[in-house]
Design goal:
Blueprint (H helix, E strand, L loop, with lengths): L3 E5 L4 H12 L3 E6 L19 E5 L5 H11 L3 E4 L6 H6 L1 H21 L7 E7 L22 H20 L3 E6 L2 E2 L8 H13 L6 E3 L5 E2 L2 E2 H13 L6 E3 L5 E2 H11 L4 E4 L6 E4 L5 E5 L17 H7 L8 H35 L4
Parallel strand pairs: 1-2, 1-4, 2-3, 4-5, 5-6, 6-11, 7-10, 8-15
Antiparallel strand pairs: 9-12, 13-14, 14-15
Helix pairs in contact: 1-7, 2-4, 4-5, 6-8, 6-10, 8-10
Enzyme class: lyase
Catalytic activity: GDP-alpha-D-mannose = GDP-4-dehydro-alpha-D-rhamnose + H2O
GO molecular function: GDP-mannose 4,6-dehydratase activity; NADP+ binding
């Protein structure tokens, strides 16, 4: 029989990859979107119109909308990927972050119970490596103590623990994947990795002068989002509901990511100086292309995230390094190089058209 899945946050990076993955598996896929005067569906536009892909309006801040959608769809699996997922934004909007990332998880769990699906519907919660925050050991695994270090991480910790509570109190098949940083060509442009690859492409093509970053020495475990959604699915196919770290087991600095991104864009960077005075210089021209700005430092900053995916590898048979770090950066840079080239071509066409109109060549 065809399985039915419901994905919250289907328009996001992970949601779009997961929707593709589940459709290929033969699922009937339903996704939730928020009502908005602006269309944010570019990541799933190619899926709309398919007979097994459906969209519904719902919001994690509105329990009635969740109950209505879950009651109508009656899914076999729910993947809760919706969240206010930007750490820096959580300092500016802590109340909204708490309502969506913490209480929103509770609303989904309760909606499943209220719809009478507690014994049939499996639930995946997108947890985060930010739970480890001010890390107490490296690398981090499923037993490492949490020390959240931002409003985002604290809200996510509530979500993580309420999933555990419902699993034990109501015998529900609900579990969390503790995802370490996962990136792709679909990553939002405000996230540091995409900010770097897009800037490298723009600088290489003469559309931007300089890139400003925060702490270049911050260490992260970066993987490819397209690989990570497979692990989300595997977690719900497991015989028992358990929590898993989803990571590569490798660690790189923001500086390394930056150097590699510029390399794939055709620029060799050399970093000189320390701290806020550190700069990235184009070795061929001597021009400063990367600078550190205190504006991008957080009130409390997580600097050393490094996951141990041993459990997922052993119990789920998941390969965390299917796409290497180098290949991930190359994929992102190639995509952004093409994006910038298209933008430049469009600007050139518009400039020529404006000139022709002014001269009366075309009307």
């Amino acid at each position: 029989m065809t399985k039915t899945a419901l994905i919250t946050g289907v328009t996001g990076q992970d949601g779009s990859f997961l929707a593709e993955f589940l459709l290929e598996k033969g699922y009937d896929v339903h996704g939730t979107i928020r009502r908005s005067s602006v269309d944010y569906r570019e990541r799933i536009a190619h899926l709309e119109g398919r007979p097994h892909f459906h969209l519904h309006y719902a919001h994690l801040g509105d329990s009635m909308s969740l109950i209505q959608v879950i009651g109508r769809v009656r899914p076999d699996e729910i993947y809760n990927l919706a969240a206010q997922s930007h750490v820096q934004v959580s300092f500016d909007s802590p109340e909204f972050t708490a309502d969506v990332d913490a209480t929103g998880v509770l609303r989904i769990l309760e909606a499943v119970r209220q719809c009478g699906l507690a014994s049939t519907c499996k639930i995946y919660q997108a947890s985060t490596s930010e739970l480890y925050g001010k890390v107490e050991e490296v690398p981090q695994n499923e037993n490492t103590p949490f020390h959240p270090y931002s409003p985002y991480a604290i809200a996510k910790q509530y979500g993580h623990w309420i999933v555990k509570e419902y699993r034990e109190a109501y015998n529900m098949f609900c579990c969390s994947g503790i995802l370490f940083n996962h990136e792709s060509e679909r990553r939002g442009e405000t996230f540091v990795t995409r900010k770097i690859t897009l800037a490298a492409a723009r600088i290489a093509q003469g559309k931007q002068e300089k890139l400003y970053l925060g702490n270049l020495s911050s260490l992260r475990d970066w993987g490819y989002a397209k690989d990570y959604v497979e692990c989300m699915w595997l977690i719900l196919q497991n015989k028992t509901p358990e929590d898993f770290v989803i990571a590569t087991g490798e660690q790189h600095s923001v500086r390394e990511f930056c150097q590699l991104a510029f390399h794939y864009a055709g620029i060799k960077l050399e970093f000189v100086g320390e701290g806020e005075n550190e700069k990235g210089i184009d070795k061929a021209t001597g021009k400063v292309l990367v600078e550190v700005s205190p504006d991008f430092y957080r009130p409390t900053d997580v600097v050393n995230l490094w996951g141990d995916p041993s459990k997922a590898k052993a119990e789920l048979g998941w390969n965390p390094t299917k796409t290497s770090f180098e290949e991930l950066v190359r994929i992102m840079v190639d995509s952004d190089m093409a994006k910038v080239a298209v933008e430049k071509a469009g600007e050139h066409i518009r400039m020529n058209l404006a000139e022709y109109l002014e001269k009366g060549i075309v009307k």
